[in-house]
Amino acid sequence: MKFGEYLRELRRKKGLTQKELADMSGFSNAEISRIESGDRQKPSPIILKALAPCLGVSYEELLKQAGYLEEVVDHQGYTEHIFKDDDGKLADIIRKAREMQETDSDWANIAYRVSRELSREDIEAIKAIANSLLNKTRNQQ
Known about the structure:
mainly alpha; about 65% helix
């Protein structure tokens, strides 16, 4: 099933018109129509995030159905789902950046500066050290 058909089916199950869904999500009726008709093949994550609560499905489910590639990473005590576009770029980095900032703003700022100010060689060295420490922690648990 194509994403537009899936979206139409969800909308109809909720008893919503395209106009009602548009009003609820903050996007235009024309945008909803383009998605349902297939003119817009892969809606942006921003649109999907706005539509999900209106349709009673998770944001992650809409990402999957829209064709964003899911990578599942198992961690100690939780599983992380990462969604990427066809080019391999993260589909929703904003949420992860916000979580990182809320957890440790100093670390978030250092990570940003590292990505902007250090050479590729230095960045790779830091990543290797970080991965080594993460593996060591994972093996100790």
